[in-house]
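Hey, sorry to bother you again with one of my protein questions. A protein chain has come my way and I'm curious about its shape. I'm sending you its amino acid sequence along with the backbone structure tokens. I owe you a coffee for this, so here goes:
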Amino acid sequence: MKLKIPPYLFLLLVLGSTAYGQPKKKDTLLSFTGHWQSGTIFKADSNYITGQAVGGNVTVNKDGSVTVQSQAGQKLNQAIDQGTSQVDQLESQVKQDLVTSEGLNEYHLYQFSQGAIDSAKAFYFGLKETAPPPGGTSSNPTYQQYNNLANWCISQADDYNSIISFYQAHRRDKTYDYPPPPLADYFNCWGCNRDAQKAFDKQCKGYDTIFFQPELGLLQKAVALLRPLTLLAQTGENVAPTPDMQNMINSLFKHSKSNPQNNGPCAFMDAGVLMQAEAFLAQRCVNKANQFAQDVIKQKNYNASIPAVRVYLNAEGQLEKILGTDQFTNGNQGTIFEACRTVVENLLTALTDKITQDHDISYLSDIPLMLSLSAQDEMVGGNGGGFIDLLNQITRYTLSLDLNVKTSMQGGVTQTAHLQGTAEMVVELDTVACVRMVLSNTENGVFTATVQENSMSTPNCTPSYVGTKTYTMPAPLLILHFCGKGGADTLTLGRFGASPASAGLWRIPCGAVPPQNMGINGLDGYFLDPTTMKNNAMNIKANAGAYQGQLQQMLAQAKQIQAQMQSQTGAGGGMNSPGTAATMKSLMDMNNNVAPVDLVNMARLAVPITLNNAALIINQTVDAKQTNTSQMTQVIDYGLYKIQLKQKSQ
């Protein structure tokens, strides 16, 4: 705690503590009892208003300020430091899961998650006993003139009376009213609504002050009044440096019940009652915050969780900075930390259950929030709610594709292709839509399938497939526009090709023709709509000039980014430095945002996806007879493209 004391009062405090020798009983300073170890350091044993042990030092600084370093505050600092160490391990694990294993695939997810964790840590750092308590300002008296002191007392009458009136009216309160808290809409696409997140964070910071009114305003006034009253020998045993000055002070505070007309101008001030009111106000803030936290727990008001934790911890820190004690014996934060853990873990569990039990992957966008809650849980002595163990589970998915096509041409020619494959997809936050799933690094940039059947039948000389069983397609992309941000959820799939590309060989017996590289004979192309492909081609032609401009822009940006990367790596950052990674991601984002969409998608199948709240998050079949609007549908016996998506762990 840091209280500002004017230099002329500082002199009185120091001289008064030693002028008449050591008192026989314990000394007092403000509301602390103990002993002066020197002219500027007071060993505080307890707070005689609360009766609780302090076990710390009160230091009178050269600039006239007073700093309280209490046992309770030290224990809080130690708990926060210990929590910080745990959060550092959490951050290391998050980086391992999202960056080391996946590189840039989950760059935005990591970026937002790291920011959320850093924000949580910053709040807890602010609770450490380093900042001064709410002090307010006051017009401090001087000792040179009696009138100055008398006028000072009179000018403080309204503040003093407002404090004492509130104290007397509410000191027996058992329940407390508090203003309606700001609410986060956690269960309605919260992770996608970044503007709402910023607004809510701002509201929470404002609520920290609003919640403690009128208590905080009165507490500031009480602290401001007690500074000069302490040095006027009204809160302890310190005396003025001269008998004449002591007599002047006594006359100012003279109080007579039988003859009130002889009262001094400061007689209405009772420093003992004021200190009791100060302790009451600080404790009331804690009690009020405790009721808020318990209401959140009982009512399962998850959307108010963060404001509840913030005000509770702020109130506790304030109690320690004002009185040198907390609301529990010997600085034990166990109970308050337990309540905060309960609030945080309840919200974290409710959110993770949406993904793991309800299979609602719209909550994937809340992963940064969940990591922030996990960090907060560790800051108050928890195990992070066990969330880090779930992180891999909820960010790793298995995409299964089953392509099965048969066509019958005139003349008795039939063709059949059947491919099956699976690949791991990982979660990334999309800065334009909401969430995207991309191929994991483990897939080496392609979706791999195995040929189950690849056959052809002709009236004469039927070819036989003798090529590779391994086929790949360019990386599929799942874009999820949760909360109506941008359009329909879409899975984009490319065309299958033999791997290696020259290995899709057929042996044609008649005429001893060398094996021909025909792959699956383009049968996956029957799922594409020729009309759409034609329109895309026409758009590309019509917008050739615009695309040329875009390509020039991309070239200029690429050169600029290349220069940045050379500068970063040349400065010793290396290819794995955060700066270089961010620059590489800028290049990828430029590609995604500037490249002509029609050109990219011309030979790809864009499948509108329906998400299920079930173990099979996607379970649908595309029928080529429905997606293909051309007359070619007449030759399709069947064309089925089965698509499934589920959590990898299931």
Notes: DSSP finds 18 helices and 20 strands in the chain. The radius of gyration is 37 Å. The longest helix spans residues 71-100.
